[in-house]
Amino acid sequence: MSEPFDGTTLLDLARSARDLAYAPYSRFQVGAALQTTDGSVFAGCNVENAAYGLCNCAERTALFSAIAAGYKPGDFIAIAVIADTPEPVTPCGSCRQVLAELCLGDMPVLLANTAGARRQTTVGSLLPEGFRLAPSA
Ligand SMILES: O=c1ccn([C@H]2C[C@H](O)[C@@H](CO)O2)c(=O)[nH]1
Ligand SMILES: [Zn+2]
Fold first, then answer.
1. Minimum CA distance residue for ligand 1 atom 6
2. pLDDT over threshold 50, residue 1
3. What residues does 111 pair with on adjacent strands?
4. Which of 15, 19, 34, 57 is the best mutation target for the ligand 1 pocket, counting ligand atoms within 8 Å of the beta carbon and taking the most?
5. How high is the pLDDT of residue 82?
6. Phi-psi region of 87 (alpha: psi -120 to 50; beta: other; left: phi over 0)
7. Which cofactor does the UniProt annotation name (predicted)?
8. Which of 10, 45, 57, 62 could pair covalently with 80 via S-S, beta carbons 3.0-4.6 A apart?
9. C-alpha torsion sign, points 41, 20, 106, 127
10. pLDDT tens figures, 91-125
11. Which of 27, 92, 123 to mutate to test the pocket of ligand 1 (most atoms within 8 A of CB)?
12. Phi, psi of 37, deg, nearest 5
């Protein structure tokens, strides 16, 4: 059975979202695209701030946008992330924690770089034994 999402399309959407990044401090642009169970896609880019601790990653922009639009934990089937890194970019610890809260452990995470390298992992493998209070998504 083929997967219920098209990884190449999701990565293309993440690549377009990356162009929208507001990253005047790091100059490091990241894009993400999150697909919901009903086929919607939420794109996200990183949004930085002069108070550096307020910088928000592309992954969390996409996840928070989906939640703000009414989607619930567990309503997501895949996320793609892309940046200009030598190897496919890999999410920071904060994003891993948020992914673990809002997505199922076996949800695919597609990681890519702008040169075309890509690999696939899961939310659970990115944060084994993560902290949680809420029941699993
Ligand atoms: O997976 C990642 C890693 C980093 N960033 C952002 C945060 C910051 O704006 C910039 C440099 O860390 O890249 C993301 O958006 N996603
Ligand atoms: Zn992050």
1. 57
2. no
3. 81, 119
4. 57
5. 99
6. beta
7. Zn(2+)
8. 10
9. negative
10. 999 999 999 999 999 999 999 999 999 999 999 99
11. 92
12. -65, -25
Looking at the DSSP assignment, which residues form a beta bridge with residue 76? 36
Per-residue pLDDT tens over the stretch 7-49:
999 999 999 999 999 999 999 999 999 999 999 999 999 999 9
Length of the chain: 137
Q: Which residues are catalytic?
A: 59
Contact 33, 11 (CB under 8 A): yes
Residue 53 CA: distances (Å) to CA of 44, 64, 79, 94: 18, 17, 24, 12
- Compute the distance from residue 30 Cα to the ligand 2 centre, in Å: 10
The identity of residue 32, as a single letter, is A
Give the ipTM of the model, two decimals please: 0.99
